[in-house]
Amino acid sequence: MMNNAYFFNGVPWFDQNGETVNAHGACVLKEGNKYYLFGEYKTNDVNKFVGFSCYSSYNLSDWHFEVLALPPQEQGLLGPDRIGERVKVLKNHKTGTFVMLMHTDNLKYTDPCIGLATCDSIDGTFEFQGPLLFEGKPIRMWDMGTFVDENGTAYLLLHEGDIYRLSDDNLTAVEKVAENIAPGGESPAMFHHGDNYFMMFSNKTSWERNDNYYFVSNNLHGPWNEQGLFCPKGSLTYNSQCFFVFSLEADGKTVPLYMGDRWSFPRQASSATQVWLPITVVKEDKCSILEYWPVWASESISQVFLEGMDKPLPFRSNQRGDSVDYTFEGSQIIVYGISDCHGGYAEFSIYDDTGEFIHRTIIDFYSLVPDSSMKYVSPKLSHGSYTLKVGVMGENGVWFKKDGKQFGSDDYFVTLESIKVCT
């Protein structure tokens, strides 16, 4: 039986209702003995704001849907046909108020503005306040992140590498600390270790993954020194894009935890996944993620190798309607496969021994860099006999940048290799 604290990378997670955890461009806060995950609540058909989600967990593994933390507004920056992205939540320890910042925009991404919302409780519904102001004017930028220093001072991080210090109540920006650190960079994330600040960026490749990179400085005002990549070159940051660094306290130590998205346009709600990995500060001013851990234990921050034999399940097809069934007895099933630039979407369905439908999700077999790894970890089931059916949907992820450049898959292949059953 699996340990509840095991963390799985690159596969959909499921909440207490068996629904896919839908929280992207996200952040994590710890309040009391619970972790809270806030993220973009995506759809499978259109890229527009439908809300920001809030989930809670005691172990970073079992997630409980709490609330739609900020729903669409009737009008304004987050009104109909608007974009809401990169949500970040701060706790102001002086006022006790929770402050939410986000990128707002129109559907063409030509009207960017940093928005502000507040709430008295971490698991409540936030009230949208309007734009975040600096010197009385809205900050009209887009990709953003946040960072809170050890003394409680909060900062807004922006694409291209601008940094703003927030007021003591976190409700306005009061100082432009640095600018243009990383021309061409987006999705900023930051952590502090020793005497240095580490600031991570992604390249601008739309929802495609790329080799993320970082800068280091011993002062937020700079100078900032580019240090290159923090994951192996060509791994495309283990097929992910940075969005936040969380200080994870476990096993008597504090470790910076990289958090990244694996986008899956257009099926962001069901198929986009996440990659969370511990960061190692190799030297005083250098950091890296030394290797990819498919499974790790959050309590000990160590890689986990699952027990049990893998059983072959060879299957490869790009024909819509082709499928393969596997009958198993246990409480959970893991499926391993290959994703590459020819991959498409597959429907995974589980039925009990009477043929009654139990669970369904959609898995994306696309990745620009070929990846042989686990693709699906089922929800935990009551011990029994089940049948897993994997079907080729004949759909794939394809999207376009503003300039018309096409990204995504060139075929519809679904490639399976093996399965592992947990009793």
Automatic annotation (TrEMBL):
Pfam families in the record, alphabetically?
A: Glyco_hydro_43
Tell me if Endoplasmic reticulum is a UniProt keyword of this record. no
Q: Give me any GO biological process, just one.
A: carbohydrate metabolic process
Q: Does the keyword Hydrolase apply?
A: yes
Top-rank lineage group of the source organism: Bacteria
Instruction: Print the keywords alphabetically.
Output: Glycosidase, Hydrolase
Under the heading SUPFAM superfamilies, the entry gives: Arabinanase/levansucrase/invertase
Among the GO molecular function terms of this UniProt record, one is: hydrolase activity, hydrolyzing O-glycosyl compounds
Q: Family, per the entry?
A: Belongs to the glycosyl hydrolase 43 family.
What protein am I looking at? Glycosyl hydrolase family 43
Source organism of the structure: Paenibacillus prosopidis
